[in-house]
Structure formats: C-alpha cells, structure tokens
Predict the 3D structure of the following.
Amino acid sequence: MTITIRDIARQLDLSIGAVSRALDGYPDISVETRQRVVEMARQMGYVPNRAARQLRKQKTDTIGYIMPVESPRFADSFFSEFIEGLGDEASVQKYDLLISTAPPGQDQEKLIYQQWVQGHKVDGLILDRMFMSDWRVQFLISQKMPFTSLETSDEGSDTPRIEVDSRSGFVELVEHVFERGFRRVAYIGGPETLRIQHDRLRGYRDGLQKLGLLFDSALVSAGDMTSAGGYNSSKRLISIPDPPDAILCINDETALGVLRAANELGMRVGKDLAVAGFDGVRDAKYSNPPLTTVDQPVYDIARQLVRMLVDEIRGTHLLERRVVLPPRLLIRESTGG
Amino acid sequence: MTITIRDIARQLDLSIGAVSRALDGYPDISVETRQRVVEMARQMGYVPNRAARQLRKQKTDTIGYIMPVESPRFADSFFSEFIEGLGDEASVQKYDLLISTAPPGQDQEKLIYQQWVQGHKVDGLILDRMFMSDWRVQFLISQKMPFTSLETSDEGSDTPRIEVDSRSGFVELVEHVFERGFRRVAYIGGPETLRIQHDRLRGYRDGLQKLGLLFDSALVSAGDMTSAGGYNSSKRLISIPDPPDAILCINDETALGVLRAANELGMRVGKDLAVAGFDGVRDAKYSNPPLTTVDQPVYDIARQLVRMLVDEIRGTHLLERRVVLPPRLLIRESTGG
DNA sequence: TTGTAGGCGTTATCAA
DNA sequence: TTGATAACGCCTACAA
C-alpha cells in the first residue's frame, strides 16, 4: 500500500540500491539518474519508513526528555519554556523529540530510562533537575548513551552541560533586597539533594554573610518547587514569632505561590514583604505584582542543550563541553521595584 | 552489544520463534518454557527493539499531536494542560506521544503531517483548534489514519470527537455580566474560520439577543488567541468613542492580555470593566484579579481523546464516537465576583 | 555508475 | 509445543 524505494525502482527500472543512494545524496550516482529518482519520489509521494531505516542504521534520529515531576498534573512554566526550546531546536536539527514524565527517583523513572535506552528509542537524552548524586548520570554513562544536562551531578565530571551560576545570582538577590531595606530575609528551597538547592542555598548564606546578617535556620523552609509548596511554606514562615520581611525562593513557581499567600493575607508585596524567585519564566512578569527574579534564559538554554547533544551524538566534539552562564537580576515590583 | 531474543534463545537452547512467542504471551507455549524465557529475559535485561517490532508489525505504538501555533515560542497554558492530559493517558495506554509544533495552514504543517502519516511514525493523531473546513481531516481520512479531535470540521461528519457546547456557554456568560449590570458587552475572537470562533461568536450574539441588547459590530474585535492579541484588541476597544464596559474573550489567554491592558490603564477590573475568558486554564484562577471563565475540562478532555483514539486504532468501536460536554461557568472577581 | 545480496531484530507462517 | 524460515523496508559492502 505504502510507497517504498522498491516501487520507485520498479517505475524507473533501476535497482533499489541505486534509488536508495540517489535519495540519500551519495556521490556515486549520475546526476541525471539522481534527478529522475528524486522527481519520481516526489511525484509518488514517497516518504522513507523510519522503522526500517532505524533498524538498519541503528539510530533513531530522536532525542528524549523525561520531565522530572511528582504529580502527573504538574505544569511548571519552567518546563513549558524548556520543552519549547527543546522542540524548536530538535526540529531545526531534524530530530524528533520524545517526551515523557516520571517522578524522580522512583522505579517508574528507571523503567522509562531503561526502556528508552535499551530499547533504542532515542539516540540521546536531555536531563535537568540534577541531583548531587544522580543515578541517571551513572546509568547513561554505563550505557554509553549520549546526554547533556542543565546543571550536573557529582558523577558527571566531564559530561557536556550548561551550568548557571546560581550561587552568585542569589548573592546578588540578597544584596538587592538588603538595599531596599529588608533585613529579615527568608529562603524557601527544594529537595535537599538537588544540585540547585545546594547552590542557591549556598548563595543565600553567602549573601547574608557578606552583608553581616545572621543566618537563622527558622527562616529557611523546604518547599517542593511547586507553587503549592511555596504557598504552604510562606504561610508557615509568616506566622512565626519574628516573621521575615523578605522571602527568596529557589524558583519562580515557588515564589508565585508565595505571592498568592501574601495577597490572601492582605500584605502589600514589595512594601510589607519582598518576594523574589529564580528562573525568569514568562509568567513572573505578569504576576501580581510583577515578580523580581534571577533570570536564566531557559528557552535558549534548552536549545543549546539540544545542539550540544546533537554534537555528542554525531561525535563532533567541536563545541566546548561545559558552558557556564551568569544569571541576570530582574528587578520588579515584588521587591519594591 | 545489545541483548536480543537471539541471545536469550541461545542461552536457553531454544529457537528465537519460541522465545518471541513466550515473551509476547502467545498461548501455544508450555508454561514451563515461558517461565524460563521470561526469567532469563529479566536476568539479561532484555528490552525489545522497537524499530524491529514496528517494521514487522507495521505499527508504532505512538500517537502524535501537532500543536497548531504560529510562533515557535508561543506557550498557551491551554496547550500545556492539553499535552499533560495526552501524555498521561498515552502512558497509561502504553503509547508514546510524539509532539511537534507547526503554524496552522502552512506548508510546513502539511509536510509534518505527511511525514508522520506516510512515514509511519504514528498510529494515530490528536487534533484540535479545528477549522470549519479543515484539510487535516480530509487528509487523514484519505490516508485511513485514525484520529480524534476536540471540536470538528465540516468534513468530519462521523469522526470520533469531543465537542464542547461553546455556544450555550457563551450565552450563559453574557447573561452573567448582564446580571452584574454591565450593558455594553464586547467580544474579542479569533481567526474567522475557526470552529470555536464560529460557535462562541454565535453564543455571544444569541446571548445579546436573548437579553434585548443590540449587536454592535464596533464591539467585536478579531484577536489571535494569544495574550498579546487580547492586549492589543482591548486597548483599541477601550479607546473607541462609546467604549465597552465588559469584554468577553474567545479564550483565557486572550482575556489575560485584556487584564494586563486594563491594569496598565488603571481600570478597576470587575467594576469599571468586566473581563471574562473561556477554557478554565489554571492560570486564570491566579490572575489579577482572578478571571471569570467558562470552564471546559481541558486535561480530562485530552485524556479521553487519547482513550477514544486508542479504541479507534485497535478497531474496538465500543465507546460512543461523539461526546458532547456542557461547559461550566466559573464566576470570579473579574466580572464583579 | 549501477546491480546484487546480506542483514538490522522481530513476528508470523509453516512444518515437524 | 517447538523449530525453521521468510518477510518488514532500508542501507551498504562488494561485485559487475
């Protein structure tokens, strides 16, 4: 039913080998024959069968990304921007993008990675939300499966990656709210073993120290990177005896939850309470009030991760394998403008 | 390098045929052999090669969705919720989800559909943002490629689909703002040939008529379903001689843009100006102020579309092929609460 | 420059 | 119940 190279070959009275080579742009074919083949293929509406090609070439022209989220219904705009970047660049590079979601660290996650890697569903993978120690990195290295990541784990000392200097971003953020007159600065973070939690908490502490502010563990709360988590944590923080006048969050999603809580409580965000996030997602610009944040170019990072991955897959190690980006402080009304 | 059924067969001194059948759960194999095979497969970490299976079985166990968006960077939360639903249900049904984006109606879109369908990349497709007359429907029918859609085109008289009664949803919406005292009710829509534009505009007009309000074409504006479009359209509407005191939008994304414009202009949304959307995306709940909207369960619709599609693919036409859902008015502060 | 043929890993159709 | 064996559509040595 479907058109194969065999059909084209028959029409043109050529061998399937010749047709195949003509279509793939091999040099050892006469210009005239190639033209005839290409034209006929177009006419007949030929589309190569991917399964066959994959089976033969042992590659899939597909890259994968497994979104590390707890709940299936979770939609952080960080991820949508990230996935947009992946999708756009994958399409530029003529790769397909396979996407799934799995709660990090669970068996289900391991199963998917195993299926994708060992079942040859992808030629390479994009990782993010890295843990300090991350089994995915070990696994992929052991399977010789190419991957690139945003941030990195301790295992991946030489893996191609993009890093954002979260620490110094957070130092800047602390300085900024200090300058605006806020003194009791709280922090809502994420899971302890997450790389960015490590880096950003560190930046928070370094910032305090630099300004001569005391670190108070009562002002540090563990969120879960969701807006619900931010909402809950902030309600708790606000109700302690000597409550904070500023809340810095590990990511924008958390900060958006804080805004919700503060608005509910009738606090004047930017005056009574400063709130800031980290990521620079689009939503943050249109929140109420607009959110101060440390911007990392999520979309562009995603695109570059794909480019690096494709280089890895093709074995052309031309680009630098480790890119470090400085984040950029975006001051908006949530910290007084 | 990778483990194939051949390796298992060798280990167990069986034929590859026997191994294949044992693994696939065929009945004509002894219980004992099956156990040995399954156990050995587990031990050796066998994962079936999908390309080979696809090539042989002529199916991909993959469903596709091509997001109909103009700009690559466009991210409407309607789509993220929709895609979440698709992804979750696909995973339940043991299907992969292949995603791409393409501007509707352009050659690029046709190319992707052609590649996916004729290159056997997917077993079925999910469609949305249907046009009154939609080439995709014609194409897929002609190719005998299963698909399900949210809303439908004129061509798909008997295709499996979910429909939401937009018209009556909009009538309700008009009644609601009327009740709140708003009298000059505007509408910001989308591309003219879009099914939902047709239905929702119709509901808007029917609502006006029911209440004895005059239809005024100066109050109808064509947006593009984006928040930027809503922003621009509303600025224009607000500046006309006899401006509206209520703006109803074809979707939430548009309405969020209207909110932004109104906030910028210092209007008190819910008092000076009523604003409402359609979709019930999560973001609408947390906008400033929270947005009145006509809710359609986007996530659940997506899941059900996948279930229906899988039924189509498997040829088990058990379910009803046409599901009509009533939308639900969610009243929030943007129309006075 | 072109044709021939083997094989990628599976499943399915036969015999045994 | 099991074992051969032929496809599925494509790519690629190798031969012509």
About this structure: Chain B has a mean pLDDT of 91. Residues 2, 4-6, 16-17, 20-21, 24, 48-49, 51-57 of chain B lie near DNA strand C (CB under 10 Å from a C1').
